[in-house]
Design a protein that fits this description.
Blueprint lengths: L1 H11 L1 E4 L3 E8 L2 E3 L4 E3 L2 E7 L7 H11 L3 H20 L4 E3 L3 E7 L2 E6 L9 E2 L11 E4 L2 E4 H9 L9 H22 L2
Antiparallel strand pairs: 1-2, 2-5, 3-4, 4-9, 6-7, 7-8, 10-11
Helix pairs in contact: 2-3
Amino acid sequence: MYNIIQKFLALHHYVDLPGIGSFTVEKNPASIDFTSRNINASENIIVFSNNDQQPEKSFYDFLSAELHTDQAHAAHIFTTFTEKLKYELNNNKPVYFKGIGSITQQTPSVFSFEAEATPGYFPELTAERVIRKNTIHTVKVGEDEKTSDEMHAVLAQPQIRKKEKWWVAATILGFIGIAAIAIYYLFYA
């Protein structure tokens, strides 16, 4: 029965064990670690929840096909199996599902799950930037795209520095301010 549950979980990404809980497979997306320059592959994570749900008809159809029996007999075998699991858990015995993990009982209605460590099928990749000299490629500059030759030409031009004349405007404003104060004290004070 353990193998059938594991197979159903692998194919359908969920399985309900009445009176115990549910297993679901969640996808952890691929990620990029910019600091270490690594690309991590996506992985499937098995999550257990303590919700008490009855399996759907599709599970019993799958179970009867795997056991080569009718659906009512398959449901009876599965109910007997889950009752045995609950009995073992109530006696503080952990229940181990190969390829999935183990379940232990914390309180009469709460079970904890520890997922089995699975090997990574795809190792992380190191992503190094490849810069080739004397090749033309496009570069995004603001909202425009330019070729590397155009950018080299722009960056190679000598920068003509304009003389800054901010002090002229500051001097004019200073004289206007001094004149306004002088007029105020000469005529109104």
